[in-house]
TrEMBL record:
Domain Pyridoxamine kinase/Phosphomethylpyrimidine kinase: 121-283
High-level lineage: Eukaryota, Viridiplantae, Chlorophyta, core chlorophytes, Chlorophyceae
GO molecular function terms attached to this record: ATP binding; pyridoxal kinase activity
GO cellular component entries: cytosol
Keywords: ATP-binding, Kinase, Nucleotide-binding, Transferase
EC category name: transferase
Protein name: pyridoxal kinase
Family recorded in the similarity comment: Belongs to the pyridoxine kinase family.
Biological process per Gene Ontology, one example term: pyridoxal 5'-phosphate salvage
Pfam families: Phos_pyr_kin
CDD domains, sorted: pyridoxal_pyridoxamine_kinase (cd01173)
The EC number(s) this enzyme carries: 2.7.1.35
Amino acid sequence: PAGHGRPPTLHAARIEGGARRDVTAMASADGACRVLSIQSHVVHGYVGNKCAVLTLQLLGFDVDAINSVQFSNHAGYPTFKGHVFDGEHLRGILAGLEENNITEYSHLLTGYVGSASLLREIAAVARKLREWNPSLEYVCDPVLGDEGKLYVPADLVGTYRDEVLPLASMLVPNQFEVEMLTDTKITTVADAFAACRLLHDKGPHTVIITSAAATDASNANGVILLLASTTLPQAKGPEHQQLVLSVPKIDAYFTGTGDLLASLLLGWTHQHPDDLAASIDAAVSSLQAVLLQTASTCDEATLGMKKPSSEGCKRRELRLVQNQSSITNPPAGAVRCRTLKEFQALSK
């Protein structure tokens, strides 16, 4: 496993537009938008909270971070050192926040969790936060594995399914994680949206499958598909409740992209609560800009190496600080979501 537990994954990084949106900080000036982010932390690099906190702060959110692990660096490096925290650790920190009456959160964001006790405690925290704020939006990245392989304890699957999903507002899994959570196999776009419906039934109003490889999609071997489904009313009409974004692949491996995307989606869906397509376009445009600039600093061999040296890992760390403007002002026209109906017409 790599990163906060999720291995490096193949990502697209082609930017097709040059104009930039005139977008600045989106959260309210009075500080009403406050995120509690529970995920991994590394001393060096940008995964987990190191990625999420900066991204959300640039988008205007106050962010309080609780670490699920504390590592020297992400686990894609040849070695790493650190600690994995348990539920008692989280319970103690939340007690301190509660005793000081500083638990007013508008959003909860969770990512990599390394222990079952911590995940169960996260569910307890989500329930408590929602008691205090019934409008709490919970964005959950259910980090389980990828490419057919689990890299967390197997009992976390059931805990996510039974205890966490009923509390989540938005779920941002990859295809393998959807298959694990729904006990289904996805080979077509129709399979993926059927799985989304199963997940909606468990709780989340919005499901965004961040990477899918449907065999019936046009040019399936050359693209990554992002598939989104929401039960929330959309300003552009009900057809915009099912969306597809097709992005060309590049032969490169990055770590932390899922953490960055989840943070961007939290930010932009807050800005566009009734326009999921616009939110995804903005989030993925920023992600692609960061990946493209990061890739430009690496040679081809470093980009494509599954198990690089420490120097190779260091070169592939996401260049967030150098790309702050791409986060606050996503390149306009870089990508465009289509409705499922539009995508099906183009795929014929």
